[in-house]
Structures are given as structure tokens and as C-alpha cells.
């Protein structure tokens, strides 16, 4: 069992044993997350799925304050190294690396990836985290892709963190298919309601998921659950 704290948009702080893993921190520019104090956030690892500002905005600040290891694709990891992040680990699609909290596999995402200054963010990805107590999938920003079937065939997942906001990523209907592909019944929703483009009917999304036999978990910003 792990602790999962939603920090808004696609940002989650995950506690695995005594380690804290932060995904895609976009907090200080997010008006909906104004009650979250970025200066107090600490992480042992910062995992970035791609280079868009709404996924990396607070990564440099938190990584430096925490002396965290930043993990992403090669282009993003090196970009942050050039900004003074001392501990970083570059990856690329299909690769795995074992850290002290578990094993990270960098998997395919279908999206785009440009860093805030216009530099190339390489190819976007997602992460499968396998730890002592189980495994989960953080999809990043992605379309539905048949490659997700490979994840379901390779891992026994407890849940998947999937985008549901549509327009730039999957919507709830495709997220349900993605959950089938990766073999989970629990979907933790992300990348919804932050901007007008991705505002959705949350009650309708929950009903759609329930009708398909899935549990759609929608956390309040700052809320922590155990999964």
C-alpha cells in the first residue's frame, strides 16, 4: 500500500516506504492549487513525463530544495542539469531502472513535448512503478494507444493514473479502454478542469466509469489516500 497525495492538475506526491516520489509538479502557477505551499514540498525523486510547462513548472525549485533525483527522458534530464539540478537520471522508452524505492519503466505516450523556453523536450512518456508492495501506472499526457496492452501483459497493476480531460489527451471513454488494456479497475483521474479546454462533467465521468465496471477516483487538491 502506498500514500497518494493529489497536488492539482497532473501532479502527485507518492509515498513508497520512506521515499517520496513527485510526479509532474505544476503547482505554483495553478490558481486551483493556491493553498499548496511549494516551498514546503520535499521529494526524494521528481519524475517528469514530458516537457510542457504544466508538468514541469516547479520541478527545478523542488528538486534543488530537496536535493532530489530528477528522472525523465534524456532531453529533459539534461535540460534541468544545465539549470543546476545536480542529481538527475536520464531514461528513454522501454528502459527500466531500479532505484531504492522500486523499479521505474519509461513507457510510450502519444503527445507532444516542448520545454518552457522552446527547447525540445524529447519524446513524451509515462511511468510504470513496480515496488515491494505492488505496481501502478502513471500515464502522463497521452492518447489511447494499443501499446498499453503490453503494460497489462507485463505487469500486475493495482491502479492507473490516467488523464481524463479530453481535448489534449484521452477523455473518460478512452481512459476506460486504457484501464482495460493495462488490467485495472481503479482509475485515478488527472489532467482535468485546470483550464477551460479540459473542463468536464465530473459526475457524468464517474457514472460512465461505474457503468463500465471501473472506479474513477477524483481527489481534491491536497487530499491524500492510501492505495
UniProtKB/TrEMBL annotation:
InterPro entries: Metallo-B-lactamas, RibonucZ/Hydroxyglut_hydro, UPF0173, UPF0173_UPF0282_UlaG_hydrolase. PANTHER family: UPF0173 METAL-DEPENDENT HYDROLASE MJ1163, UPF0173 METAL-DEPENDENT HYDROLASE MJ1163-RELATED. The keyword Membrane does not apply. NCBIfam families: PRK00685.1 (NF001911). Residues 8-191 form the Metallo-beta-lactamase domain. SUPFAM superfamilies: Metallo-hydrolase/oxidoreductase. Pfam families: Lactamase_B_2. This is UPF0173 metal-dependent hydrolase GCM10008106_04060. It comes from Mongoliitalea lutea. GO terms for molecular function: hydrolase activity. Belongs to the UPF0173 family. Gene3D superfamilies: Ribonuclease Z/Hydroxyacylglutathione hydrolase-like. Keywords: Hydrolase.
